[in-house]
Amino acid sequence: MNEVPKEQTIHESDDQDVAWMREALKLAAYAFSLGEVPIGAIVVKDGQVIGRGYNRREIDRNPLAHAELLAIHEAAQTLGGWRLSGTTLYVTLEPCPMCAGAIVQSRIDRLVYGARDPKAGCAGTLMNLVIEPRFNHQAVVVGGVLEDEAAALLKQFFQTLRTKQKEK
Predict the structure, then answer these.
(1) Which of 85, 139, 142, 160 has a Cα at 20 to 30 A from 68?
(2) What SS3 state is found at 41?
Protein backbone atom coordinates (compact mmCIF):
# COMPACT_ATOMS: atom_id res chain seq x y z
CA MET A 1 0.00 0.00 0.00
CA ASN A 2 1.34 3.44 -0.95
CA GLU A 3 1.78 5.98 1.81
CA VAL A 4 -0.03 9.29 1.68
CA PRO A 5 2.50 12.08 1.06
CA LYS A 6 3.44 13.78 4.31
CA GLU A 7 4.59 17.03 2.68
CA GLN A 8 3.04 19.02 -0.08
CA THR A 9 4.90 19.97 -3.19
CA ILE A 10 4.77 23.74 -3.44
CA HIS A 11 6.15 25.48 -6.49
CA GLU A 12 7.08 29.15 -6.81
CA SER A 13 4.56 31.67 -8.10
CA ASP A 14 5.29 34.28 -10.74
CA ASP A 15 3.95 37.72 -11.65
CA GLN A 16 1.26 36.18 -13.83
CA ASP A 17 -0.02 34.14 -10.89
CA VAL A 18 -0.27 37.33 -8.82
CA ALA A 19 -2.22 39.10 -11.59
CA TRP A 20 -4.69 36.22 -11.99
CA MET A 21 -5.09 35.91 -8.22
CA ARG A 22 -6.10 39.58 -8.14
CA GLU A 23 -8.94 38.66 -10.52
CA ALA A 24 -10.03 35.86 -8.19
CA LEU A 25 -9.91 38.31 -5.26
CA LYS A 26 -12.32 40.62 -7.13
CA LEU A 27 -14.80 37.74 -7.30
CA ALA A 28 -14.25 37.05 -3.60
CA ALA A 29 -15.00 40.69 -2.79
CA TYR A 30 -18.18 40.45 -4.85
CA ALA A 31 -19.22 37.35 -2.89
CA PHE A 32 -18.60 39.34 0.32
CA SER A 33 -20.92 42.09 -0.95
CA LEU A 34 -23.65 39.47 -1.38
CA GLY A 35 -23.21 38.13 2.16
CA GLU A 36 -21.36 35.01 1.01
CA VAL A 37 -18.07 33.75 2.41
CA PRO A 38 -15.60 35.67 0.21
CA ILE A 39 -14.01 33.04 -1.98
CA GLY A 40 -13.38 33.60 -5.67
CA ALA A 41 -11.99 31.34 -8.37
CA ILE A 42 -11.04 31.52 -12.03
CA VAL A 43 -9.85 28.94 -14.54
CA VAL A 44 -7.29 30.16 -17.07
CA LYS A 45 -6.17 28.51 -20.30
CA ASP A 46 -3.73 30.02 -22.78
CA GLY A 47 -3.89 33.42 -21.09
CA GLN A 48 -7.69 33.60 -21.15
CA VAL A 49 -10.22 33.25 -18.35
CA ILE A 50 -12.52 30.40 -19.34
CA GLY A 51 -14.37 29.97 -16.05
CA ARG A 52 -15.31 32.16 -13.09
CA GLY A 53 -16.97 31.44 -9.79
CA TYR A 54 -17.57 32.85 -6.37
CA ASN A 55 -19.07 31.26 -3.32
CA ARG A 56 -22.89 30.98 -3.70
CA ARG A 57 -23.85 28.45 -1.04
CA GLU A 58 -26.21 30.78 0.82
CA ILE A 59 -27.76 32.38 -2.28
CA ASP A 60 -28.33 29.05 -4.03
CA ARG A 61 -28.98 27.11 -0.80
CA ASN A 62 -26.63 24.54 -2.24
CA PRO A 63 -23.71 22.93 -0.39
CA LEU A 64 -22.03 22.30 -3.76
CA ALA A 65 -21.95 25.97 -4.81
CA HIS A 66 -18.28 26.49 -3.99
CA ALA A 67 -16.32 29.02 -6.06
CA GLU A 68 -14.03 26.34 -7.50
CA LEU A 69 -16.86 24.06 -8.61
CA LEU A 70 -18.69 26.92 -10.31
CA ALA A 71 -15.52 28.04 -12.11
CA ILE A 72 -14.73 24.47 -13.16
CA HIS A 73 -18.29 23.99 -14.44
CA GLU A 74 -18.12 27.18 -16.51
CA ALA A 75 -14.69 26.22 -17.87
CA ALA A 76 -16.01 22.82 -18.97
CA GLN A 77 -18.95 24.52 -20.69
CA THR A 78 -16.57 26.95 -22.42
CA LEU A 79 -14.30 24.16 -23.66
CA GLY A 80 -17.15 21.80 -24.45
CA GLY A 81 -15.81 18.93 -22.36
CA TRP A 82 -14.96 17.85 -18.84
CA ARG A 83 -11.20 17.44 -19.34
CA LEU A 84 -9.56 20.72 -18.40
CA SER A 85 -5.99 19.79 -19.32
CA GLY A 86 -3.73 22.77 -19.90
CA THR A 87 -5.58 24.93 -17.38
CA THR A 88 -4.76 26.63 -14.10
CA LEU A 89 -7.29 27.15 -11.32
CA TYR A 90 -6.77 30.25 -9.17
CA VAL A 91 -8.71 30.31 -5.91
CA THR A 92 -8.46 32.65 -2.96
CA LEU A 93 -8.73 29.89 -0.31
CA GLU A 94 -7.10 26.48 -0.31
CA PRO A 95 -9.59 23.94 -1.66
CA CYS A 96 -11.65 21.68 0.58
CA PRO A 97 -11.79 17.89 0.00
CA MET A 98 -14.70 18.19 -2.44
CA CYS A 99 -13.03 20.87 -4.54
CA ALA A 100 -9.64 19.15 -4.43
CA GLY A 101 -11.37 16.05 -5.78
CA ALA A 102 -12.96 18.10 -8.56
CA ILE A 103 -9.53 19.44 -9.51
CA VAL A 104 -8.22 15.90 -9.87
CA GLN A 105 -11.32 14.65 -11.69
CA SER A 106 -11.32 17.53 -14.18
CA ARG A 107 -7.60 17.08 -14.94
CA ILE A 108 -6.62 20.67 -14.09
CA ASP A 109 -2.83 20.98 -14.46
CA ARG A 110 -2.08 23.70 -11.90
CA LEU A 111 -3.72 24.93 -8.72
CA VAL A 112 -2.78 28.34 -7.37
CA TYR A 113 -4.37 29.35 -4.08
CA GLY A 114 -4.19 32.29 -1.72
CA ALA A 115 -4.91 31.66 1.96
CA ARG A 116 -4.32 28.33 3.61
CA ASP A 117 -7.31 26.67 5.25
CA PRO A 118 -6.42 25.09 8.61
CA LYS A 119 -9.92 23.57 8.99
CA ALA A 120 -10.53 22.02 5.57
CA GLY A 121 -7.49 22.59 3.34
CA CYS A 122 -6.79 19.58 1.15
CA ALA A 123 -4.05 20.99 -1.05
CA GLY A 124 -1.36 20.67 1.59
CA THR A 125 -2.58 21.89 4.96
CA LEU A 126 -4.53 18.93 6.34
CA MET A 127 -3.67 16.59 3.49
CA ASN A 128 -2.92 16.95 -0.19
CA LEU A 129 -5.48 15.24 -2.37
CA VAL A 130 -4.32 17.23 -5.40
CA ILE A 131 -0.94 15.47 -5.58
CA GLU A 132 -2.01 12.11 -4.17
CA PRO A 133 0.02 9.59 -6.23
CA ARG A 134 -2.65 6.89 -5.98
CA PHE A 135 -5.01 9.02 -8.09
CA ASN A 136 -4.80 9.00 -11.86
CA HIS A 137 -4.00 12.73 -12.04
CA GLN A 138 -1.96 15.18 -10.00
CA ALA A 139 -1.77 18.96 -10.28
CA VAL A 140 1.12 21.28 -9.59
CA VAL A 141 0.33 23.27 -6.42
CA VAL A 142 1.34 26.88 -5.81
CA GLY A 143 0.17 28.08 -2.40
CA GLY A 144 0.19 31.38 -0.58
CA VAL A 145 -0.19 33.74 -3.56
CA LEU A 146 -1.53 37.04 -2.14
CA GLU A 147 -2.19 35.07 1.02
CA ASP A 148 -2.37 38.15 3.27
CA GLU A 149 -5.00 39.85 1.09
CA ALA A 150 -7.11 36.70 0.81
CA ALA A 151 -6.88 35.98 4.54
CA ALA A 152 -7.71 39.60 5.43
CA LEU A 153 -10.88 39.50 3.33
CA LEU A 154 -12.01 36.30 5.07
CA LYS A 155 -11.17 37.72 8.49
CA GLN A 156 -13.10 40.91 7.76
CA PHE A 157 -16.12 38.91 6.59
CA PHE A 158 -16.27 36.79 9.72
CA GLN A 159 -15.71 39.79 12.00
CA THR A 160 -18.61 41.57 10.27
CA LEU A 161 -20.77 38.47 10.63
CA ARG A 162 -20.02 38.17 14.35
CA THR A 163 -20.78 41.87 14.88
CA LYS A 164 -24.15 41.50 13.11
CA GLN A 165 -24.99 38.44 15.21
CA LYS A 166 -24.18 40.31 18.43
CA GLU A 167 -26.43 43.19 17.36
CA LYS A 168 -29.37 40.81 17.03
Answers:
(1) 160
(2) strand
